[in-house]
Amino acid sequence: MQPKSSRGKYYILDFTNMKSVRTRIAPSPTGNLHIGTARTALFNFLYAKKHGGAFVLRIEDTDRERSTKEFEKNILSGLEWLGIHWDEGPEIGSSSYRGDYAPYRQSERIFSYKKYLEKLLFEEKAFYCFHTEKELANEKKAQMESKIPVQHICTPWRDLPKRDAEKKCGAGEASIIRFKMPPTSAKEPSNYQLTFRDIIRGQVHFFARLLGDFPIAKSSVEPLYNFAVVIDDYEMQITHVIRGEDHIPNTPKQLLIAKALGWTTKNTIGDTIPPWEYVHLPLILGPDRSKLSKRHGATSVDEYRQAGYLSDTLFNFMALIGWNPGDAREKMTKEVLIKEFSLEKVQKSGAIFDTTKLDWLNGEYIRSKTSDELFEIARPYFDQAGISADAILLKRILALEQPRLKKLSELGEGIGFFFAVPEYNKELLRWKQMSDEDVAQSLKKSAECIAGMTAPFNKEVLQKLFFDMIGEGDKGAALWPLRVALSGKKSSPGPFELLEILGREVSLRRLQRALELAGATT
RNA sequence: GGCCCCGUCGUCUAGCAUGGCCUAGGAUGCCAGAUUCUCAAUCUGGAGAUCGCGAGUUCAAAUCUCGCCGAGGCCA
Fold first, then answer.
1. Residue A78 near residue A33, CB atoms below 8 Å
2. Is A218 annotated in the active site?
């Protein structure tokens, strides 16, 4: 059960006794749905679904300085779009909830935190600290300079009688509430280690002493993160705390709080066991291997959505960051992902969010859609590009563009020439070493050929007729100028496909224009 | 500064608990060829990792042990 090296995975997980799973995710109200948050949500979701458990969504909005309503809506609709559905949590855009442990917004659970805060205060496991920020900063500075651990042992306030502390509070003195590091004893000497088990990393040890008297609330109605989550996890009957690796250092604090509230048990080797399992996921990194953040570019699900990535793509791709099914499969449906997901196979090291591979996967998903499905998804991008036309026509064009499409946002650029006469340079019409005269001849011949064609204007028929008339010879010399005349682009679908869609009249007009361009002397 | 975590192709990774099947496999990206012009798609091939470094154990180490280094995270 213990890791022996940094690389090997040595855990044999036993979930046979697990009846129900309740995982949770607590998105901070920082605006958009960050890729990292979404990935954490996804892993929680996959794990819960795999084991028939509930996925709980909790909103951390105790910081009331920010306007959280709009932010919350963004985050929730982002998750919804990805297909990560929560069994319990807030309803989008409303004040109601689904689930038995409501409310799921921390701002509405203050009464609960207050209750436990007062309990800890009463039992003298927590206390009011009256140090000023300046005093604290000075202490830290001194500690760093003398190279000793940065920690705050809060003398004299940790031993101030509760009544006196309350008096000071009543007098308006600024204070925060701190957790009182348990006194050392023979049983638990000052260097005792706090050990917790992480499903991905095995046992992780911390020296409890180094934590000092850490803060848990700004006041009895303003709990801090480390305190609030413990209360929520307990009250919401959470069984699996699955979160990012950046929370590892928070874990011993939370363990201590849970222990102080009497929620932990001891296992056979004396470890303190909370009523839930810990799982710390590897971080998603930017190209420079630091935690993915704004300076790396697009970091929110919304930005990827707007760029024309499909929700299937993102769902699949995020699942593959730090996890794989153990075989060569990469493109997997949500159902397969749920079926195959396992925490044992989750990676320990962080992974760079590689958009090149994302592009490839998105192309895969785009190609796997039927033309109707793709059309529905692509609709907003037609609008965005200012293209409006008959649905049947749009569908045909989309089908032509489908194999070369990586992101839907590129759609307009790729198909604009179908709707507007393309602008291009004379040189583009030239195939290899053709002279101006050759180009003109080629175009003339194509034009004659097309002019002589009658319905049906169908690409197979067109192709056959065309080659019959052109005969053998350099196909490029015939096809390249024709295709450029029609599309005005270096790369595009084939000329016969274009002819079929553009139709006889439009095609001839474009050919005529190309001819004029080729004949021009500049 | 302290603590914690991590380290296999550029990138995502397989292999590591049970050392030999690994002259390290796959995918992506890149390069080349095939495919009725181009691009894409598709198919075929290629380059790309002395498994962070160093020592040790062993007949044998990516895999076990020790040391070092590097990078990241958290604490304000």
1. yes
2. no
